Amino acid sequence: QKARYLNSSNQITAGVYNTFSSVGNYFRLASVNKRLARENAMLKSLIADLPYVRITPYSVVSIAEFTDSVYRFKSARVINNSVDKQYNYITLNKGRKHGIKPDMGVVCSEGIVGVITHVSESYSLGFSVLNKKWGASAKLKKSGTFGPLSWDGNDAAFANLTGIPFHVELAVGDTVVTSSYSSVFPEGIMIGTVHSIEQPPGDNYYKISVQLSVDFRSVSYVEIVENLKKDEIRNLERNKTDDSEL
């Protein structure tokens, strides 16, 4: 009977340890995810420092030159997010004390997420792509033709790309990415793929439905994008001389 009791006790103890081990693994996994997000942001910032590479006779690949990085990435966690409204927002656990400012872009590994609009000391709030007040400058990766991307408030999986003229060749499945005309995102960030194409009668531009690459119902970790040259560019454009005076 004593042996049976000890055996049962050992089974219970093993079960408890297994439970705590599972809980520990869960929290360790969360910690690993955070670390990987930070490292991913750091690597993207480092890559932004490398404008191009060049093959030389003396090495397989060498860096031709270094320039100041244009973009800096900071990892953040999504603490609130909506997808079922006309004007959806995303809340992040990084704020002013972390260097976050309005007009910074938000991306994840799948593509663009949104843009920061409001900042407190420890948190930030922004439009997601699923917000009728906001849009992004997009382009067809194959042709390079660009146009505005916006959400119509209907399906959380799709957005609309406009301004693409009929003479541009495109097909369902073509990739849509951010264009170089955005001061919020680096060029070439994934947005989605062409889902459907219409040619409205009497119009000169396609009506294109884009299937978004990001599943906004499951976004958990993101990266906040800072364009270090944005203010300089905006000041230059704001103070530009009128062509008639040149």
Give descriptors for this structure:
246 residues, alpha+beta, Thrombin, subunit H, 6-stranded antiparallel β-barrel, 6-stranded antiparallel beta barrel, 2 helices, 14 strands, 23% helix, globular, disordered N terminus
Sequence-ordered SSE layout with sheet pairings:
Elements: H1 2-48, E1 53-56, E2 59-63, E3 71-81, E4 87-92, E5 105-108, E6 111-119, E7 124-131, E8 135-140, E9 146-150, E10 158-161, E11 175-178, E12 190-198, E13 207-212, E14 221-227, H2 230-238
Textual characterization of the structure:
The chain is built from two helices and 14 strands. By secondary structure, it is of the alpha+beta class. The strands form three sheets. A six-stranded antiparallel beta barrel has the order 3-4-7-6-5-14. Strands 8-9-10-13-12-11 form a six-stranded antiparallel beta barrel. It has a two-stranded antiparallel ribbon with strand order 1-2. A hairpin with a 4-residue loop joins strand 6 and strand 7.
- SSE pattern: HEEEEEEEEEEEEEEH
Helix content: 10-25%
Quote the CATH topology of the domain at 135-212. Thrombin, subunit H
Shape: globular
The biggest beta sheet is recorded as:
6 strands, antiparallel, barrel
Backbone CA Rg: 24 Å
Based on the coordinates given, report the CATH architecture of the domain at 135-212: Beta Barrel
Count of alpha and pi helical runs: 2
Sheet with the most strands: spatial strand order: 3-4-7-6-5-14
